[in-house]
Amino acid sequence: MNLKQRLYNHLLEIVKEREPYLNSAGHFFVQQYINEQFKQYGKVSYHEFKIGEQTHKNIILNLPGRQKKAAPIIIGAHYDAVPGCPGADDNATGVAVMLELAREFAANPPKYPVQLIGFDLEEYGLLGSVAYAAELKQNKQPVRLMLSLEMLGYCDNSPNSQSYPPGLKNLYPNIGNFIALIGNLPTLPDLIHLGNNFRKMGTPCEWLPTPNRGLLIPQTRLSDHAPFWDNGYRAIMVTDTAFMRNPHYHQSTDTIDTLDLDFLTSVCEGLIQGIGSF
Predict the structure, then answer these.
(1) Closest CA to 146 of 180, 108, 182
(2) Helix, strand, coil % over all residues of the chain, rounded to 5
(3) CA nearest 117: which of 224, 10, 6, 235?
(4) Average per-residue pLDDT for the chain
(5) What is the strand order of the sheet 179-184 is part of?
(6) How far is CA 235 from CA 42, 144, 226, in A?
(7) Which of 68, 94, 236, 249 gives the lowest tally of CB atoms within 10 Å of its CB?
(8) Four-point Cα dihedral 21, 25, 29, 31, nearest 10
(9) Contact (Cβ atoms closer than 8 angstroms) between residue 254 and residue 88
(10) How does 204-231 read in b/e, with b if 16+ C-beta sit within 10 Å?
(11) 53 DSSP assignment
């Protein structure tokens, strides 16, 4: 089975209403699916955090790297969705790619250890990653780089299909057919490295280094990388730019048939190449 088919098979399992309170059965099913997939490659652990009286969990798989004592690369994707939305692009695509990265790096360890995390409650204000990043900082745990996989499968080759926050329109293409990398300033060498690897694999890529934790452009903070920025870690959001391109964002129409599976596959291939060659 090829990569495109495996990604599609993941999407078939993940794309369903899975808001944690109103669609708790779907949410639990996707939790279990991630757990079962991760279990093929190593021991699964949970990072639990409480919101009110309810306990939520981030799902974690640690994979060794060739440099056993090196700080890890964290690869995260949120698995929750907003009410009434099957969340195909947001964020089943990110979870599907994360699962394929687990498969790849279990078989072919990269230089750095890899920690893969399914984050919960991103849609409620990044609550899963806020709790996790704060705990890392409190325990003084080093991180080589954090990558947040946030909507990876929507592509539109039409002119003027891509919009931007104010001030950026004239700096980037108006066609929404690229993958975007948005990192804090210390990630600049990583942005260049990953961007070059995406382009080598045939995927158009644009990148944006953001000063001051992205506070000048609030749209750059809308995923699980932002709490890592806030805690002083190097972090990059990998994204198809969400509502800046995808008209189905947070709608009931965010379904598999709106995705470009060839684009999604090429993004996954670029990440495999880029992370594997750090």
Answers:
(1) 182
(2) 40, 20, 40
(3) 224
(4) 97
(5) 44-51, 54-63, 114-119, 73-78, 145-150, 235-239, 179-184, 205-210
(6) 25, 9, 8
(7) 68
(8) 20
(9) yes
(10) bbbbbebeebbeebeebbbbbbbbbbbb
(11) T
Helix axes 3-14, 261-276, angle to 10 degrees: 110
* Interacting residues of 125 by C-beta distance below 8 A, sequence separation 6+: none
DSSP 259: S
The values of phi and psi at residue 119, to 5°, are -90, 140
The reported pTM is 0.98
If you search the block for the tokens 């640690």, which residue do you land on? 62
What are the pLDDT digits (tens) for 100-111? 999 999 999 999
Report the CATH superfamily, name and number, of domain 3-276.
Zn peptidases (3.40.630.10)
Pick left, alpha or beta for residue 193 (phi over 0 → left; psi -120 to 50 → alpha; otherwise beta): alpha
6-58 per-position pLDDT tens digit: 999 999 999 999 999 999 999 999 999 999 999 999 999 999 999 999 999 99
Spatial contact of 130 and 56, defined as CB atoms under 8 Å apart? no
pLDDT tens digits, one per residue of 167-203: 899 999 999 999 999 999 999 999 999 999 999 999 9
pLDDT band of residue 68 (cuts 50, 70, 90) is: confident
Q: Label the pairing between strands 54-63 and 44-51.
A: antiparallel
Neighbouring C-alpha atoms within 13 Å toward the C-beta of 258: 21
Beta strands in the chain (DSSP E): 44-51, 54-63, 73-78, 114-119, 145-150, 179-184, 205-210, 235-239
Domain ranges of the chain: 3-276
Q: Is the pLDDT of residue 1 over 90?
A: no
The residue to which tokens 């709790």 are assigned? 131
